[in-house]
Amino acid sequence: MASCLQTAQALVSAYNSWTLENIMDVRASDCINYILPASLGRKVMNNEEYVSFFGPRMAPFRNFNLKVHDTVVDEAARKVVLHMTSAASTDIGDYHNEYMLKLHMTEDRRKVDRFEEFVDSAYSAKYMAELQQHQSEPRKASM
Q1: pLDDT at 143
Q2: Using H for helix, E for strand and C for coil, what is the string for the chain?
Q3: Angstrom distance (rounded) from CA 89 to CA 118
Q4: What pTM value is reported for the model?
């Protein structure tokens, strides 16, 4: 049987691979995703909705890397809490964010069936607005 920690580490590795297929492979087929705090106004998503939401947001980010700073594991409750930071680059500059993930595992502990992601909401909102504005600007043709 897998441990909750092994599954959490697989999830971190999946995000560091920066492929949607790997990211989704660690999730149970009925995984529910929450992006918090609620003030961000993100709806609860199943896997299909998460792919539609997250997939298009991946393209601008290069060299995405998560670093785990602290981990709390409760095998009996099948939960892991991760405090992490990320770094990546985009066309508007470096990206750095901070996260607290609370992961609930399936009974066999091989997949995540509830994904609660707390993000630095002020930074996320500001950076994503700037990135979206940059992406919507007309591109100058090179001669």
Answers
A1: 45
A2: CCCHHHHHHHHHHHHHHCCHHHHHHCEEEEEEEEEECHHHCCCCECHHHHHHHHHHHHCCCEEEEEEEEEEEEECCCCEEEEEEEEEEEECCEEEEEEEEEEEEECCCCCCEEEEEEEECHHHHHHHHHHHHHHHHCCCCCCC
A3: 21
A4: 0.85
Instruction: At 105, list the tokens.
Output: 């595992």
Cis peptide before 37 (omega within 30 of 0): yes
Reference 3, options 111, 135, 124, 140; nearest CA is: 111
pLDDT, one tens digit per residue, over 71-87 is 999 999 999 999 999 99
